[in-house]
């Protein structure tokens, strides 16, 4: 049993199995069945469910017990009994069957439309009656209330044959040159026929008048379809009282409501092949349409594809078993396909074991054409040294190569390449090594300059990636890959000095973290030196201990700052002591100073005072000169004038002085003599 899946819909092919070449004799086939377990175990749901060459039409009786199929060659009809899971009977015919209809609930009344304009009636015992219509027929429908057969074909007329009276009635004259298909509505018995001009004519059998005309060819042309010729109607099917599906020769399916001339939905198969069959699946509201290449199942409301099947051989007809998930096809091949789709419905009663069987099956697609034979080309034979076998019975010519026994192929391959197993073993070992290497931690190459900073950026980048994955955000670009900061990791002038005062004060907690990073750097350097490609974690505390340690570091941030400051003071003190030692060791040499013109040398102290005075603000210097009385106004000989300014106190200073004065007065008023306090204490004790 072959299992396929499309859109999560499992399709079980019950007719698929281990194929045997057609050129094998029946005796060899039976011998293979005895020897091979897989051939014996293949599922044959209905025994000999096939035709000699090709099957053209397949139908199920209304009671569901009989499946009937017609095919060639020679033209014949086969009836299969589902209760016995075998063939009921087989009848050969004089000419090929175009289509047929089961008139009764079982196989007792059947009508065949044949190629030579013949209409043949069969009863339960066999052939019953044969008649002929004026033109070649293509399809027919049975009108149950009046017992009329309506034949359409290569004529503008619709021929009527009454089975109750046993004679032809007046035909219906249509506007079409030819008609391809027809169907009768099962509810109100409206007769519809599809013409070669792409139109659908609807007739009322009671009045024999045309009541409607649909131009499907014009409606099937959409913006994205390419049509070479005029589409004709190739399939027609009613659904209930109001819906009708129409298939065209260009591969479109149109769904109509009979109350409207515009289609509800247009579905294109995109193969350009005529639609062969249309079926309705009511449980899931699906339409099953098929051309010669593909079977598509799609929703009739939205047009969305449910699933599809592509058999190996061209499709001639599709039949859906009523109220189940079983689908049967007539193909351009001897074997008729049976598919079971559990989603569409349960298995029929006569094969209810399929429900249990399909639950246990697993999907094992087999790509080999013939399991006991190997297909080889001429080049393969030359490589194996078997080119001399061409033309012998050991090779069977097929297409561009040959079929040969699989056992002979394996023996020749072993002789041509005896070390094939060793090569295979080596390749498998290499694949296993590659898999283990892929699981290792990849070593990241660090730059020559600022290695610790690069390692820090890599760690932060990894944390940011994890956060962005959780929040579904885009990752920010890394500084290591940015060209603007490339020089920082290449030029030694940009090396970060971790011993500088600024760095240590700005990063008080960097000491412990840098120690971990240095350990990691040391390990990376060792791995680089050894040429290994794995990065081991440094031995130390676990991740939980590290997280608790980082939290303790955050709590003791102030202590770390104090420690850093204390260390800096100690270093400064050591530097001062070193300077003093150097000064003591050096010999003092006399220094000479030059006095500017117009200046009078008094002492070194005056120059020192002057330097201190210059460091003060202008206001302080003017106050000092005012106290000393050096600030005055005098006229010069040139006519210039030197003015002396008295600085006024600012409003803020004045208010501050007044407030201080009031405060002093209040303190004086509140002050008491010590004797007054002693007398009060004595009184308190007396009254107490």
UniProtKB/TrEMBL annotation:
Residues 1-364 form the Nucleolar protein 10-like N-terminal domain. Residues 528-538 have a biased composition (Acidic residues). GO terms for biological process: maturation of SSU-rRNA from tricistronic rRNA transcript (SSU-rRNA, 5.8S rRNA, LSU-rRNA). Residues 369-417 form the Nucleolar protein 10-like second domain. Keywords: Coiled coil, Nucleus, Repeat, WD repeat. Residues 648-663 have a biased composition (Basic and acidic residues). Coiled coil: none annotated. Residues 482-508 form the NUC153 domain. Residues 664-688 have a biased composition (Basic residues). It is found in: Nucleus, Nucleolus. GO terms for cellular component: 90S preribosome; small-subunit processome. Pfam families: Beta-prop_NOL10_N, NOL10_2nd, NUC153. Residues 528-558, 637-688 are annotated as: Disordered. It comes from the Eukaryota. Belongs to the WD repeat NOL10/ENP2 family. This is Nucleolar protein 10. It comes from Struthidea cinerea. The lineage of its organism: Eukaryota, Metazoa, Chordata, Craniata, Vertebrata. The gene is Nol10.
